[in-house]
TrEMBL record, chain A:
The keyword Disulfide bond does not apply. Residues 156-182 are annotated as: Disordered. Pfam families: Fer2, Fer2_2. This is (2Fe-2S)-binding protein. GO terms for molecular function: 2 iron, 2 sulfur cluster binding; metal ion binding; oxidoreductase activity. Residues 166-182 have a biased composition (Low complexity). SUPFAM superfamilies: 2Fe-2S ferredoxin-like, CO dehydrogenase ISP C-domain like. Residues 2-78 form the 2Fe-2S ferredoxin-type domain. InterPro entries: 2Fe-2S-bd, 2Fe-2S-bd_dom_sf, 2Fe-2S_ferredoxin-like_sf, 2Fe-2S_ferredoxin-type, Beta-grasp_dom_sf, Diverse_Oxidoreductases. It comes from Halostreptopolyspora alba.
Automatic annotation (TrEMBL), chain B:
Keywords: Molybdenum, Oxidoreductase. It holds the Pfam family MoCoBD_1. This is Xanthine dehydrogenase family protein molybdopterin-binding subunit. GO terms for molecular function: iron ion binding; oxidoreductase activity. It comes from Halostreptopolyspora alba. Its cofactor is Mo-molybdopterin cytosine dinucleotide.
Length: 182, 796
């Protein structure tokens, strides 16, 4: 048993874990974070994707002990506290990018990860970016559409929080504005 | 999240956002594996590594010493209570239905068959303990190939049966009086085309692995299961184990896909049921992906010998089909029936004057086969659409022109086919015209000609598939005539709550199809109640006591009709209530835009909600009036429904590397009247993806010892986003004349249509070099070989 602490969806948890426990099992079975699911035993399906310190990872490829001290974001923490959906969630709904929804938590988290690295992906870039996430229901077409819609929404939304930031740090960091607006 | 607002009476046909999304996109879904109960134990199953062997020694006692283990048992220890898994569809009187114990007792007949079970406090402890169980196997000869299995001296899968033949089912139009004699048609024919096609074995590969929780405490034994068929499961649990039906409750919570793969009552469900009762505590079994792949049922696996006879002008004169269908080692719920469903579809949309069909089911030492999206109909459609292309090539005729010369014209419906079905409606001309236009068919043919003449190494192939299917399973009478063990009706209840909100209870069991949304749309229109005010309940035998579940594109075609009728009964019950409230004669009322109004004086109106409150209070209802609007309806269709469509596929085939790229894909489907176009389009996309997967990627094969070679997602190639094209979809709409909504079915259409469209396109690209077939899946290696083969076809 080893002692680990994780911050999952904004809440800190301290636990003793068996060294062989996978992060996904720790999330589901110990922390009750059952929004993240398991679809395979060979790290191929991506259903278990979460963000670890902001980076997308398949949580079945990480030992819980390896995640010690890290911040984990799952599908359950993605919407705002008032229930406002993340643009990727909203786009998945609007574009009918899910049917049974089993791949959806992982697919959405992978899409969030993809968009954090590439805010304006082409169709091919979305397909490549989501290659590690299998969906058996949709044929991916609406998923690709949803991710690109979400990208457009997020690009349009970026100026809003930045405006207030620029006010407080006015004149101090003009280059930041330029980078974010890319 | 808000769905698009719909006005009264306009919900059906609107592209409303799905209700079920709210929980699915936020991780608040109730999957079976999320269910956790106090004191719950976890099961692990030891599975046979041998494809055929006698169990000479099995001892679970060492496992009992392992930490966390509560109990362990083998098949022998539960032999008297575990029963034999049911087959509901022995297609002939003499179909061989072997004993099928959930846990093998003396003999194992395929790899992955359960031989022992451990129950422990957590899953890891249960799995660790499996390794301590002692088993000795005495190997028995293995038979995997269907033709070898039918040879006189073949090793027997079931040694007590004397043969590996499960059944032979035949149809002959001359005997049935629906057409002529095929032998005569073939001897008189100007052209005869004979082909052998092989339907590789596929794995349904739903994304949610199967999971079961059984709670034996309380009055009813409750089973949660990731199943498509909670009602059938409850009945089978009762019948097989002898537990009274009313003492069993089955819940299918959110279910992550099925595609026929969860149309089963599984060994694991019975194992969990037996284990929970034996231990007296709740148990959970969630399978790993490898277990799903190895022991969840597979699909397809048929060898098809097809002969079309025709005249030189292209008119077809006869069709004969000889089929070998691999059952696997045991029979699942509908295993023998799957190829027989196909029997009615080989003649497809064409006017064959003579037809003969023969199917032999064969036992082998493999995992059982059973329904997989389309179940029998994709196989039939593939064979006929491939064979029509071969005939077109033989005649030097455009494949669409050949089809046009033989298909049923729109003014010939209803049309009784040579295989006895009556197609109610359709317009193949319209769908094909639209598809050609969207595809740019003529232009692509010209490009193809140019590139052929230029001898490009990358050749353009154009594949055609004009299909129909029988769906909406099904008229109970027809199922009875096919020896099926149940009816095909569906049921719905409408419960009107005091505040005017409505609960719809359905016997269908969605697992991705969006029934909560579509059924709300139907009820909203029928009752004049807002879409948001309707809750759809399903998948729990405690609320939905009756139903035949979801498969065979039946839910809207049958269950949707039941819902319409249940709503009509609500309106009928509300009418005298409204008349009483409005102090008028019920006959003077009309129900429009969600309210009863007196004809001629529309200003005073009473809604269903008004009537519902009135019956809730029931203070001054007329003497004898039942104070309730709640209504049930059960609908048994008179006929199947027959969606159809025309799919066109263009492939770029690299003759040097064998690589196939789908350049464009157009699908024009006619599924009758549409309740939610967004959901329909999604079904078409997903269906096509699975059909393309069969054509190009997926294959579950066995090595000579009977080990599954593609047992994980590493080697069983479920397509990812980079493997699939963008699809252009459109619809024509020929309403189903006998359905209250005019709806047909859509769940399987894409899968049925797309496989032959893609393979026809691959073969078409290589046709100039003499290729007449490429076996599925058309991998680069196979395409490359075919392109190089001097005889042209790898197979012929
Ligand atoms: S469960 Fe993690 S990749 Fe499949
Ligand atoms: S929505 Fe079912 S697997 Fe993707």
């Amino acid at each position: 048993m080893s002692r680990i602490n994780l911050t999952v969806d904004g809440v800190r948890y301290d636990d003793d874990v068996d060294p062989r426990t996978l992060l996904v099992h720790h999330l589901r079975e110990r922390l009750g974070k059952v929004g993240t699911v398991v679809g395979c035993d060979t790290t191929n399906c991506g259903a278990c994707t979460v963000l670890m310190d902001g980076q997308g990872v398949k949580s079945c490829t990480v030992l819980a002990a390896q995640a010690d001290g890290r911040t984990i974001d799952t599908i359950e923490g993605l919407a705002g506290e008032d229930g406002t959906l993340h643009p990727v969630q909203q786009a998945f709904h609007e574009r009918h990018a899910l049917q049974c929804g089993y791949c959806t938590p992982g697919m959405i988290m992978a899409a969030v990860d993809l968009l954090s690295e590439n805010p304006d992906p082409t169709e091919d870039e979305v397909r490549e970016g989501l290659e590690g996430n299998l969906c058996r229901c949709t044929g991916y077409q609406n998923i690709v559409g949803a991710v690109r819609d979400a990208a457009a929404t997020m690009r349009a939304e970026v100026p809003a929080p930045r405006e207030s930031t620029t006010e407080t740090v006015e004149g101090t960091a003009p280059t930041t504005t330029g980078e974010v607006a890319r | 999240m808000t769905a698009t607002e719909a006005g009264p009476g306009t919900s059906v046909g609107a592209a409303l956002g799905r209700k079920e999304d709210a929980r699915l996109i936020t991780g608040r879904t109730m999957w079976t594996d999320n269910v956790t109960l106090p004191g719950m134990l976890h099961l692990a199953i030891l599975r046979s590594p041998m494809a055929h062997a006698r169990i000479t020694h099995l001892d679970v006692t060492p496992a009992l010493e392992s930490p966390g283990v509560i109990t362990a048992f083998s098949g022998r220890e539960v032999a008297d209570v575990q029963g034999s898994l049911p087959c509901a569809w022995p297609v002939t009187e003499d179909t061989v239905v072997p004993d099928y114990p959930p846990i093998a007792v003396d003999e194992v007949r395929h790899t992955g068959e359960p031989v022992a079970v451990v129950a422990a406090r957590d899953k890891a402890s249960a799995e660790d303990a499996l390794e301590l169980i002692e088993v000795d196997y005495e190997p028995l000869p293995v038979v995997l190939d269907m033709e070898a299995a039918l040879a006189d001296d073949a090793p027997l899968v079931h040694r007590d049966q004397g043969s590996n033949r499960c059944y032979t089912w035949t149809f002959d139009s001359a005997e049935a009086g629906t057409g002529g004699d095929v032998t005569r048609a073939e001897s008189d024919a100007e052209v005869v085309v004979t082909r052998r096609f092989s339907q590789q074995r596929l794995i349904p590969a739903f994304m949610e692995p199967r999971s079961i929780v059984v709670d034996p405490t309380g009055d009813q034994i409750t089973m949660w299961s990731a199943t498509q068929v909670p009602h059938i499961l409850r009945l089978m649990l009762a019948m097989v184990t002898g537990t009274p039906e009313h003492k069993v409750r089955v819940v299918a919570p959110d279910v992550g896909g099925g595609f026929g793969g969860k149309l089963q009552v599984t060994p694991e469900e019975f194992i969990a049921f037996v284990a929970a009762n034996r231990i007296g505590r709740p148990v959970k079994f969630t399978e790993s992906r490898s277990e799903t792949m190895m022991s969840g049922h597979h699909g397809r696996d048929q060898i098809q010998d097809v002969t079309i006879s025709a005249r030189r002008d292209g008119s077809v004169t006869g069709l004969s089909v000889r089929l070998l269908a691999n059952m696997g080692a045991y029979l699942g719920l509908v295993t023998p029936g799957v190829p027989v469903l196909g029997a009615f579809m080989y003649n497809a949309i064409y006017k064959f004057p003579a037809y003969r069909f023969e199917c032999t089911g064969v036992f082998t030492n493999t995992t059982k086969t059973d329904a997989y999206r389309g179940a029998g109909r994709p196989e039939a459609t593939f064979a006929i659409e491939r064979a029509m292309d071969e005939l077109a090539a033989e005649l030097g005729m455009d494949p669409l022109e050949l089809r046009r010369r033989n298909w049923i014209n729109h003014d010939e419906f209803p049309f009784t086919t040579v295989s006895t079905l009556t197609y109610d409606s359709g317009n193949y001309e319209a769908a094909t015209e639209r598809a050609k236009e969207l595809f740019g068919y003529d232009e692509l043919r010209r490009e193809q000609e140019r590139r052929r003449a230029a001898g490009d190494t990358v050749q353009l192939g154009i594949g055609v598939s004009t299909f129909t299917e029988m769906c909406g399973l099904a008229p109970s009478r027809v199922l009875g005539s096919l020896n099926y063990g149940a009816g095909g009706w569906e049921t719905a209840s409408v419960r009107v709550l005091p505040t005017g909100k409505v609960e719809v209870v359905t016997g269908t069991s969605p697992h991705g199809q969006g029934h909560e949304t579509a059924w709300s749309q139907i009820a909203a229109d029928q009752l004049g109640v807002p879409f948001e005010d309707i809750e759809v309940l399903h998948g729990d035998t405690r609320s939905s006591h009756k139903g035949l579940d979801t498969y065979g594109s039946r839910s809207l075609a049958v269950g949707g009709a039941a819902l319409v009728h249940a709503c009509e009964k609500v309106v009928d019950k509300a009418r005298p209530v409204a008349a009483h409230l409005l102090e008028c004669d019920p006959a003077d009322l009309e129900f429009t835009d969600g309210a009863f109004r007196v004809r001629g004086s529309p200003e005073s109106a009473k809604t269903i909600a008004d009537c519902s409150l009135a019956v809730f209070n029931a203070h001054d209802l007329p003497e004898g009036m039942e104070p309730s609007l709640d209504s049930d309806a059960t609908y048994d269709p008179a006929n199947f429904s027959f969606p159809h469509g025309s799919h066109l596929c263009a492939t770029e085939v690299d003759t040097e590397t064998g690589r196939v790229r789908i350049r464009s894909y157009v699908a024009v489907d006619d599924v009758g009247r549409v309740v939610n176009p967004t959901i329909v389009e999604g079904q078409v996309h997903g269906g096509i993806a699975q059909g393309i997967a069969q054509a190009l990627y997926e294959e579950a094969s066995y090595d000579d010892d009977g080990n599954l070679l593609a047992g994980t997602f590493v080697d069983y190639l479920v397509p990812s986003a980079t493997d699939l094209p963008t699809i252009t979809t459109d619809r024509t709409e020929t309403p189903a004349p006998d359905h209250p909504l005019g709806a047909k079915g859509v769940g399987e259409a894409g899968t049925i249509a797309s496989t032959p469209a893609v393979v026809n396109a691959v073969v078409d690209a290589l046709r100039p070099s003499g290729v007449t077939d490429v076996p599925m899946p058309c991998t680069p290696e196979r395409v490359w070989r075919a392109a190089r083969s001097t005889e042209g076809s790898e197979r012929s």
